[in-house]
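This part of the workshop introduces the protein records we will be handling. To make this concrete, we reproduce a full record directly below.
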Amino acid sequence: MEISRPLRRTMHDRQIAGVCGGLARFLDLDPTVVRVVYALATVCTAFSGLLVYLILWAVVPARDY
């Protein structure tokens, strides 16, 4: 399976920084599904997902429009 599009934070479908929207676009999923899965994973892992989100926010570049 070859992925032709890079992982980018979205500027259009964003709530905070566009990380979940960018992941949803990259994985071709609905952004709401990605946000719900992320929220559940964060709560179930003692909120370590917040650290992952901050790292992705810093590392993943924003999409240029």
